[in-house]
Design brief:
It contains eight helices and five strands. The chain is an alpha/beta fold and 190 residues long. Helix 1 packs across helix 8.
């Protein structure tokens, strides 16, 4: 089982993925938490480049697209190994993030065509102002104007994909976590 958390920066993906892991472990499941970008050399380079003031330029968008796709291919090996061990995989982001954050869409989709499609995508949808405040604007993508566009792209993906479930991220931490557990329980008959 491959579960992915998606959402704009500051929506609570990291926190909720850890809470879901704890919940599933308490139910007796073997769970592995992963994150994109990874801690590989490519992932470290991505994190460094995200701080670049030109990170949203056309040139950098294509650079990020390639780097994220390469980092993701490294991660696909790990996912395959974890699945062979019958582990539940919970990821903070997937190729869907590249589809909404990088341009051009069709090219990004093409270079990620070998990425594994998650069994379930939990899209944390929340207020832009709160998300920006939470993310503290540490990179070039963490501002309301840009994130508004990203949020709309996520919602469009969710409307057109059967594996997406939208979770209201504006609720308090416990309520969001409870709603996630209900969705996971229902989808996987836990």
């Amino acid at each position: 089982m491959y579960i992915v958390f998606e959402g704009i920066d500051g929506s609570g993906k990291s926190t909720q993925s850890k809470l879901l892991k704890d919940y599933l472990v308490s139910k007796g499941y073997d769970v592995e938490l992963i994150v994109e970008p990874t801690d590989s050399d490519i992932g470290k380079l991505i994190r460094k480049l995200l701080q670049n003031p030109n990170a949203r330029s056309d040139y950098m968008q294509k650079t990020f697209g390639l780097l994220f796709a390469a980092d993701r291919m490294i991660l696909m090996n790990k996912i395959q190994d974890l699945e062979s061990e019958n582990k539940i995989i919970i990821s903070d982001r997937s190729f869907y993030s590249s589809l909404v954050y990088q341009e051009p869409y069709n090219w990004i989709k093409e270079i990620n065509k070998f990425a594994k499609k998650p069994d379930l995508v939990l899209l944390l949808d929340m207020d832009l102002k709160t998300a920006v405040m939470r993310s503290q604007g540490t990179d070039e993508f963490e501002n309301e104007e840009f994130l508004s566009s990203v949020k709309e792209k996520y919602l469009k993906l969710a409307r057109n994909s059967s594996n997406f479930k939208i979770i209201n991220g504006n609720n308090n931490l416990d309520e969001v976590s409870s709603n996630i557990k209900k969705v996971v329980d229902a989808v996987f008959n836990i």
